[in-house]
Write a structure and sequence with these properties.
Structural class: alpha+beta
Largest sheet: 4 strands, antiparallel
Number of strands: 9
Radius of gyration: 23 Å
Order of helices and strands: HHEEHHEHEEHEHEEHE
Length: about 200
C-alpha cells in the first residue's frame, strides 16, 4: 500500500491565534523547536507564521505587531488522504517547505520537508540502518534485477532496501542494493564474476 500524507504528517501541532504577540511566538518556536506556526481562529485555519517572517519583523515595532500582521494567508493545504507523491509534487510546484493538512475544514497536521525526509526518504535509502550499500552501474532492467537477487539469495543475504536512479550528469542508470551484511567482499566478488560493475557506496 502506498503512503499517504496522514502517515508522515506531524499531528502534535503548535498553533497560535491571530493576536499572538511576536515575542510569544518567538519563544514558542524556540521551546518547541518548530519553524512554522499555523494561525487558527475558532477552529479555522486562517494563516501561517514562519520563522523567517518573524525574524524579519522582530527588531522593529516589536510591541505592536501580532501574528495577523505577519502571517501569510495564501495557504497551501492538502488532505491527510492525499498520497505522499501528490504532497511532494504540490509542495514543489508551490515552492513551499510545508503543507498544512486539513480535514473537514479543520487543521489536523502539518507535513514539512523534514517529515518527508525522516519518514519517507530515510527508510527508502536505508539511512541509519546497518549493512552495506552496493551500486551497480551496468544495470539494464528486470533481467539484471532477477539475476542480482538470485546471487544475493544464494549467499543468504537479505535485502534491506533497493532502488534505481538515473545520474543527472551522465544519464547512466544505477541500481543500488542495501544488504544485511557488514562484509561486502564476498558479494562484490560474486557480482563482479557475473559481469557486474559494482562498488560499495558510502552510507
Amino acid at each position: 500500500m502506498w503512503m499517504l500524507i496522514g502517515d508522515v504528517m506531524t499531528t502534535d501541532l503548535v498553533t497560535v491565534t491571530s493576536t499572538a504577540p511576536l515575542s510569544d511566538m518567538r519563544g514558542l518556536m524556540d521551546t518547541r523547536r518548530v519553524r512554522r506556526l499555523p494561525v487558527v481562529e475558532n477552529g479555522e485555519l486562517v494563516g501561517l507564521v514562519t520563522r523567517n517572517a518573524l525574524e524579519r519583523e522582530f527588531s522593529s515595532l516589536l510591541s505592536t505587531l501580532a501574528a495577523k500582521d505577519i502571517m501569510v494567508t495564501n495557504l497551501v493545504t492538502t488532505s491527510p488522504d492525499a498520497t505522499v507523491e501528490e504532497g511532494v509534487a504540490l509542495a514543489q510546484a508551490r515552492r513551499v517547505g510545508a503543507l498544512l493538512v486539513v480535514k473537514d475544514d479543520r487543521l489536523v497536521g502539518i507535513a514539512t520537508t523534514n517529515d518527508f525526509f525522516y519518514k519517507l526518504l530515510n527508510p527508502i535509502l536505508g539511512i541509519g540502518l546497518p549493512g552495506v550499500r552496493l551500486s551497480v552501474s551496468n544495470f539494464s532492467g528486470a533481467p539484471d534485477l532477477e539475476n542480482i537477487l538470485h546471487i544475493t539469495n544464494k549467499l543468504g543475504l537479505d535485502v534491506i532496501t533497493m532502488f534505481t536512479m538515473t545520474r543527472p550528469d551522465t544519464g547512466q542508470r544505477l541500481f543500488t542494493l542495501h544488504l544485511d551484511t557488514d562484509e561486502p567482499s564476498v558479494v562484490l566478488a560474486e557480482l563482479r564474476k557475473h559481469g557486474y560493475e559494482v562498488e560499495a557506496r558510502a552510507r
